[in-house]
């Protein structure tokens, strides 16, 4: 006896909703479990025997199987082995009324995700299903990314399924085909260059080159030479003519990272090139036409910089045609497990070893960390943990002492109603400054950010300066 059912879930489908096959020769147990899972948003099918289950699996696309251990004919372990042989990507949970260590070990060796002991609570089953589906989703995502990375021309993609990341990806898809300039705003480590590469990849210029330069890494003279090139003899050491990045990126995309660090004199020269679509090499007299799309990025508030006279308003308007805002990691912690698993897989692959699992306690510790360095800091943390992990699982002891000693998110009593992220940040900063006597250095340390970031956040929220 088999059947297929689907349901939207009385409370809405959870993020890891999937297609699940429930196998049991007891109709009441089988149907009750399937009904409970449908109410939680999953699509379910049922089978009364192992043979019926294999027939359904052959014809259908399932994410997971929950099978009773003791059944007539093909038992749960035999079904588990058959599923793993034919469909190794499908997660299997074995349900047993006689849980023993030997049974558990045998099931896990055969490839089961876990086992569920009768009698079980429905919430216990739902949680186990959610974790198994989440593991499958993460494994599929990592496999997809691994395939992409085989082509070194593809960038590391923007990972994440949080609403803010989905909106960011949709925005990139909309603006990439146009040829106008793009300004990417975001804190350090949020992935601004990755977003710039995605804009290039999805644009009509994707066959051209993508070249990047950090404008804060050069003094004015060197930056001018890097961008525009120079003629032979233009300055001491210029023994030959050199093309700059504008010419080298002809027909492609030029990414100007940390554009807010550019001097005012250099901003004038960049503005001319943007307006006229020509460049002039250092020491040269000829105007050279260039066909380049500009993508600029900064962790500064350029409007504030314009008001302070540190950034030219006319250049700001030229660059600020289309804007992408990169969310900090603290606003997308739901993506943390996916990011952590991806970075662990990447680090292990580069060192020629199997990717270790990441324990629940590590993910819990990471979820309570402020991540002032955002995704880049998470990548560094995971890569270090992979190095120190000698087994097959990253544990809390593999994290750096600095991370374990760092301030974690603090929950204080007295908050009577939910607040927006901006309101939470403003209140947290104000509360910390109050309790440090206005000492910005100490407040920044307690908040887990640097002093400059604290100053920018204080200014954005209209908070008075500390000491």
Quick synopsis:
This protein has 467 residues and is of the alpha/beta class.
Set down the secondary structure blueprint.
Layout: E1 2-5, E2 19-23, H1 27-39, E3 43-47, H2 50-59, E4 64-68, H3 76-86, E5 91-96, H4 101-109, E6 114-117, H5 122-149, H6 163-175, E7 182-185, H7 192-201, E8 210-214, H8 220-228, E9 229-230, E10 242-243, H9 245-248, E11 253-257, H10 264-276, E12 278-279, E13 288-289, E14 293-298, H11 302-307, H12 313-319, E15 322-325, H13 336-350, E16 357-358, H14 360-367, H15 374-388, E17 393-394, H16 401-405, H17 421-435, H18 440-447, H19 451-461
Parallel strand pairs: 2-3, 2-4, 4-5, 5-6, 7-14, 7-15, 8-11, 11-14, 16-17
Antiparallel strand pairs: 1-3, 9-10, 12-13
Helix pairs in contact: 2-3, 5-13, 13-15, 17-18, 17-19, 18-19
């Amino acid at each position: 006896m088999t059947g297929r059912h689907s349901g939207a879930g009385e409370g809405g489908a959870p993020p890891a909703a999937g297609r699940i096959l429930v196998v049991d020769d007891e109709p009441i147990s089988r149907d009750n479990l399937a009904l409970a899972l449908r109410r939680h948003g999953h699509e379910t099918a049922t089978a009364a025997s192992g043979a019926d289950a294999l027939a359904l699996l052959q014809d259908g696309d399932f994410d997971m199987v929950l099978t009773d251990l003791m059944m007539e004919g093909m038992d749960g372990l035999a079904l588990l082995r058959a599923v793993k042989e034919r469909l190794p990507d499908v997660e299997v949970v074995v349900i047993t009324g006689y849980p023993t260590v030997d049974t558990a070990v045998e099931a896990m060796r055969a490839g089961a995700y876990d086992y569920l002991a009768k009698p079980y609570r429905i919430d216990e089953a739902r949680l186990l299903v959610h974790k198994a589906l989440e593991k499958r989703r993460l494994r599929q995502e990592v496999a997809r990314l691994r395939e992409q990375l085989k082509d070194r021309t593809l960038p590391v993609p923007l990972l994440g399924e949080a609403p803010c990341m989905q909106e960011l990806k949709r925005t990139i898809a909309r603006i990439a085909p146009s040829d106008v300039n793009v300004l990417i705003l975001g804190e350090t480590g949020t992935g601004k260059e990755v977003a710039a590469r995605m804009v290039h990849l999805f644009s009509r210029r994707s066959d051209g080159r993508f070249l990047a330069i950090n404008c804060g890494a050069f003094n004015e003279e060197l930056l001018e030479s890097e961008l525009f090139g120079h003629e032979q003899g233009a300055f001491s050491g210029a023994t030959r003519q050199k093309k700059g990045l504008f010419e080298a990126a002809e027909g492609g995309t030029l990414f100007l990272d940390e554009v807010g660090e550019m001097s005012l004199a250099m901003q004038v020269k960049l503005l001319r090139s943007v307006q006229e679509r020509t460049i002039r090499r250092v020491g040269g007299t000829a105007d050279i036409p260039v066909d380049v799309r500009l993508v600029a990025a900064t962790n500064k508030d350029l409007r504030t910089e314009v008001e302070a006279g540190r950034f030219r308003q006319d250049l700001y308007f030229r660059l600020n045609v289309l804007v992408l805002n990169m969310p900090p990691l603290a606003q997308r912690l739901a993506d943390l497990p996916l990011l952590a698993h991806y970075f662990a897989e990447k680090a292990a692959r580069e060192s020629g070893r199997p990717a270790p699992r990441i324990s629940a306690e590590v993910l819990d510790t990471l979820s309570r960390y402020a991540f002032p360095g955002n995704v880049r800091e998470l990548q560094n943390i995971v890569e270090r943990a992979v190095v120190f992990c000698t087994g097959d699982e990253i544990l809390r002891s593999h994290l750096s002492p600095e991370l374990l000693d760092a301030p974690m998110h603090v929950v204080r009593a007295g908050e009577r109603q939910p607040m927006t992220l901006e309101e939470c940040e403003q209140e947290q900063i104000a509360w910390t400054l109050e309790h440090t006597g206005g000492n910005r250095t100490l407040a920044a340390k307690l908040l887990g950010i640097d002093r400059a970031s604290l100053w920018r956040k204080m200014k954005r929220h209209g908070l008075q300066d500390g000491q």
